[in-house]
Amino acid sequence: LMAEKSGYRHFMLKEIHEQPRAIADTLAGRISENKAEIILNDIQLSTSCLTGIDRLYLIACGTSWHAALVGKFLIEKLARIPVEVDIASEFRYRDPLINSRCLTLVISQSGETADTLAALRQARTQGAPVLAICNVVESSIARESDGVIYTHAGPEIGVASTKAFTTQLIALVLFTLFLAQQRKTLADSQRQELIAALMSLPRLVEEVLQLDEAIEQTVRPYLHARDFLYLGRGNQYPIALEGALKLKEISYIHAEGYPAGEMKHGPIALIDEDLPVLVLAIKNATFAKVCANLEEVHARGGQIFIVSDCDCSDLRALAREYFIIPTTHDDLMPILTSIPLQLLAYHLAVLKGTDVDQPRNLAKSVTVE
Ligand code: G6P
């Protein structure tokens, strides 16, 4: 079994470190030789179908649902189509307003999640074309969809999803750029800028992974933390949710993800010197606002963790732990910020001595509704 883990202590750690390769494999063959266009032969839907739709439904469970939340930002911004995001188990029972002009995109690593499969069938019954983003080839969801964008991340063994998540985000970027290309909502130069950024991601992810040891060395003081708060804004909000989910799943520490700007409407009441608060502070349009939230946490004594692409003394002065990551196109930053959060959850879980690869009560694929 050790051999399968290639020397890593757990499958999860191996899979975290496989991300540069997995991302390269998701991109392989999907960018034209002149780096100007996206090729998605996997999508069996006609151009007229893709240009004729007036809404998208993104449906998933768990970590894949967090990918869907990032997908909404991408698709609405770049392909200019309204997107609804649904948790699969909620979708069917709300009499969804879905028809043949609503493209449904289901996201599932395993392709076997019962709620997601049931939602897919519901959408099809109501006449919607269905695409899937899956990791497992020929899975039930893949087989029942009109087209599949495979993530090609390779088998994911750890119950807590890591490389499947970041490659779902890559698949969503590819799909969004393809839609934008078909619908002509994006200038060629903008598309090419994103393509260039996509191609340099494996190298940047490799760089982020170098934080592994530093993160391992910071976790001990937080071993007995009872709660963690994760804050992010815009496309980083779903990453805050995902970071909190990772921590809950494998370390059994309660954690909550929240939109940073909403903190003042509730979670701020929880902040005291015992609460670790992880803030995703990315240098984008809302950076100044996130920094203001940071000041508020600091004023109440919260133990601040910062993940940022900005190395500045003002932030350093506020932070207990400060993890600097490289910067890239803002639409791709969620892929980079995911990684320190995976490592943080992993190292805390290892320190707590939990069964990292097979946490209690959880299953890799949930085939009951
Ligand atoms: C289970 C797993 C999660 C996963 C979710 C959805 O809860 O433990 O890691 O995100 O199912 O799985 P799927 O295979 O549909 O992406």
TrEMBL record:
<keyword id="KW-0963">Cytoplasm</keyword>
<keyword id="KW-0032">Aminotransferase</keyword>
<feature type="domain" description="SIS">
    <location>
        <begin position="45"/>
        <end position="185"/>
    </location>
</feature>
<dbReference type="GO" id="GO:0005829">
    <property type="term" value="C:cytosol"/>
</dbReference>
<protein>
    <recommendedName>
        <fullName>Glutamine--fructose-6-phosphate aminotransferase [isomerizing]</fullName>
        <ecNumber>2.6.1.16</ecNumber>
    </recommendedName>
</protein>
<dbReference type="GO" id="GO:0097367">
    <property type="term" value="F:carbohydrate derivative binding"/>
</dbReference>
<feature type="active site" description="For Fru-6P isomerization activity">
    <location>
        <position position="364"/>
    </location>
</feature>
<keyword id="KW-0677">Repeat</keyword>
<dbReference type="GO" id="GO:0006047">
    <property type="term" value="P:UDP-N-acetylglucosamine metabolic process"/>
</dbReference>
<comment type="subunit">
    <text>Homodimer.</text>
</comment>
<comment type="function">
    <text>Catalyzes the first step in hexosamine metabolism, converting fructose-6P into glucosamine-6P using glutamine as a nitrogen source.</text>
</comment>
<feature type="domain" description="SIS">
    <location>
        <begin position="218"/>
        <end position="359"/>
    </location>
</feature>
<dbReference type="GO" id="GO:0046349">
    <property type="term" value="P:amino sugar biosynthetic process"/>
</dbReference>
<dbReference type="GO" id="GO:0006487">
    <property type="term" value="P:protein N-linked glycosylation"/>
</dbReference>
<keyword id="KW-0808">Transferase</keyword>
<dbReference type="GO" id="GO:0005975">
    <property type="term" value="P:carbohydrate metabolic process"/>
</dbReference>
<dbReference type="GO" id="GO:0004360">
    <property type="term" value="F:glutamine-fructose-6-phosphate transaminase (isomerizing) activity"/>
</dbReference>
<keyword id="KW-0315">Glutamine amidotransferase</keyword>
<dbReference type="GO" id="GO:0006002">
    <property type="term" value="P:fructose 6-phosphate metabolic process"/>
</dbReference>
